[in-house]
Amino acid sequence: MKKIILTFAATLLFGFAMAQNAKIPENITLKTLDGKTVESSIIQNDGKPIIISFWATWCKPCNRELNAIKEVYDEWREETGVKLVAISIDDARSASRVKPHVDGNEWEYEVYLDQNQEFKRAMNVINVPHTFLINGKGEIVWQHTSYVDGSEEELFELVRKLANGEEI
């Protein structure tokens, strides 16, 4: 029994370590808000940090998080060069609500649709909101699920560290 538990624990730790050094999958098809097809390799920021936020129109914590970041996003970009990419997991039934939702909230983020949720699966996202922080090498260095008021402050501290060349 001990062997099984130790093997399971080692597998979890190894999986977590691998996930932390993983890169963004590059060959997943996404759609822009105007319906154009793009590959996930479009998610780049010239060596600067990237925040990827998986969200949905029906997800209240997702909307609270993205609206909280909206209030400080210009300052974040100016200070660190960070880019936020919002990936909607709304399916075909609700995808038509994404663009009006983004426009109504005045989000200035890059927003892509992952209607078939292939990118979501490739990034091992189970629940939304799920936020990833990507370093300048395109590696996932931090991730977080759920949202509570103030979580964006912790995220920005990590973005600052990356922008200053520090490890996370």
Top CATH class: Alpha Beta
Report the count of strand segments.
Answer: 7
CATH architecture: 3-Layer(aba) Sandwich
Low-confidence stretches: 3-19
> Overall 3D geometry?
globular
First CA to last CA: what distance? 35 Å
CATH superfamily: Glutaredoxin
The biggest sheet amounts to: 7 strands, mixed
CATH-assigned fold name: Glutaredoxin
Write down the overall mean pLDDT. 90
Number of helices: 5
Read across the widest sheet, the strand sequence of neighbours is 2-1-5-4-3-6-7
Taken together, the total number of domains comes to 1
Q: Which structural class matches the secondary elements?
A: alpha/beta
- State the order of secondary-structure elements, H for helix, E for strand: HEEEHEHEHEEH
What does this structure look like?
With 168 residues, the protein is of the alpha/beta class. The protein has one domain (24-163): 3-Layer(aba) Sandwich (Glutaredoxin). It is 39% helix and 20% strand. The protein is built from 5 helices and 7 strands; from the N terminus they run H-E-E-E-H-E-H-E-H-E-E-H. It has helices at 2-20, 60-80, 98-105, 118-122, 151-163, and strands spanning 29-32, 37-39, 50-55, 83-88, 110-113, 130-134, 140-145. The chain has a 7-stranded mixed sheet. Helix 2 packs parallel to helix 5. The model is unreliable at 3-19 (pLDDT under 50).
Keywords:
168 residues; single chain; 7 strands; disordered N terminus; alpha/beta; Glutaredoxin
What's the helix and strand layout?
Layout: H1 2-20, E1 29-32, E2 37-39, E3 50-55, H2 60-80, E4 83-88, H3 98-105, E5 110-113, H4 118-122, E6 130-134, E7 140-145, H5 151-163
Helix pairs in contact: 2-5
